[in-house]
Amino acid sequence: MKGQTYVILAILCIILISVFAVLNMSVVEVNYLFWSGSSPLIFIILFSVLFGGLITMLFGTWKIVQLKRQNRQLNAQLKQLQANTTSNDQTTNKQKQLRNQEKKDE
How confident is the model at residue 54 (pLDDT cuts 50, 70, 90)? Predict the structure, then answer.
């Protein structure tokens, strides 16, 4: 259900941005860092949304990679702790068995 909500919201945003871009068809002059040029406002709006989405996707992907790396490290730590716990339990059980045998021998 959560995935469907995101898809519906994405479609609504795309429709809203498209309508906004189509309503702004006039040619405007855009000043870049070292040069300027004129182009239809619809292209400026659509490319701005596209580059904004790409930048967001890059940062999101970077964060997911970091989280996966952290997850692998934590899983390795968990396995190590479980192995230590198991060996400690086995040692404790052996000690209990030895004590029980000593009590029986007395």
Answer: very high
